[in-house]
């Protein structure tokens, strides 16, 4: 039986509230769990002590039994100093999404077209200007 320490969502629409629970990994997110280990209220400010409450003794017990914390729970435990900090790698974090990349390409194409048009416009009057000067000299 693969045990997980994870969040189970409660609360109403647009007002999330989570229970930190020990549950079988095959159970649904908000479904049957074995033990409630704490709460997480994301609506409270980050410095509030009621934002995350955890029963450390029971969490230590379940970790000892081989329960795997989810990523969010492991971050809570790192903040509490229970688990050593893991080095995470997210290579795509700074990369813009596909639509943003498409917009950048379209913008660069428009800029390139505008620059070419401006270059042609500069080249054309430069050729016509000497003829105009010659006409002025002839008068």
Compile the SSE list and pairings.
Layout: E1 3-12, E2 15-24, E3 35-40, E4 52-54, H1 56-64, E5 68-69, H2 71-80, H3 98-138
Parallel strand pairs: 1-5
Antiparallel strand pairs: 1-2, 2-3, 3-4
Domains, number: 2
Sum up the overall morphology in one term: elongated
Oligomer: single chain
Q: Which CATH architecture of the largest domain would you pick? A: 2-Layer Sandwich
Instruction: Give the full name of the CATH homologous superfamily of the largest domain.
Output: Ribosomal protein S16
Largest sheet: 5 strands, mixed
Low-confidence stretches: none
Distance between the termini: 101 Å
Relative strand content: 15-25%
Q: Give me the side-by-side strand order of the main sheet.
A: 4-3-2-1-5
N-to-C order of helices and strands? EEEEHEHH
Look at the structure and give the mean pLDDT. Answer: 82
Radius of gyration: 31 Å
The total of helices stands at: 3
Specify the CATH class of the largest domain.
Answer: Alpha Beta
Structural class determined from secondary elements: alpha+beta
Fraction of residues in H or I helices: 40-55%
- The CATH topology label of the largest domain is S16 Ribosomal Protein, Chain: A
**DSSP summary, beta strand count:** 5
How would you characterize the overall build of this protein?
There is one protein chain. This protein has 139 residues and is an alpha+beta fold. The mean pLDDT is 82. The chain has two domains: 3-80, Ribosomal protein S16 (S16 Ribosomal Protein, Chain: A); 96-139. Helix content is 43%, strand content 22%. It has helices at residues 56-64, 71-80, 98-138; strands spanning 3-12, 15-24, 35-40, 52-54, 68-69.
């Amino acid at each position: 039986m693969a045990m997980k320490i994870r969040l189970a969502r409660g609360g109403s629409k647009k007002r999330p509230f989570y229970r930190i629970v020990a549950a079988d990994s095959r159970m649904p997110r908000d479904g049957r769990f074995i033990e409630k280990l704490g709460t997480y209220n994301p609506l409270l400010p980050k410095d509030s002590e009621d934002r995350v409450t955890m029963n450390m003794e029971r969490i230590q017990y379940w970790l000892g039994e081989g329960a795997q914390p989810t990523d969010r729970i492991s971050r809570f435990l790192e903040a509490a100093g229970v688990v050593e900090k893991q080095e995470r790698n997210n290579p795509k974090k700074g990369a813009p999404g596909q639509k943003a990349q498409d917009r950048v390409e379209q913008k660069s194409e428009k800029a390139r077209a505008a620059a070419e048009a401006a270059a042609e416009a500069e080249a054309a009057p430069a050729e016509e200007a000497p003829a105009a000067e010659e006409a002025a000299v002839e008068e």
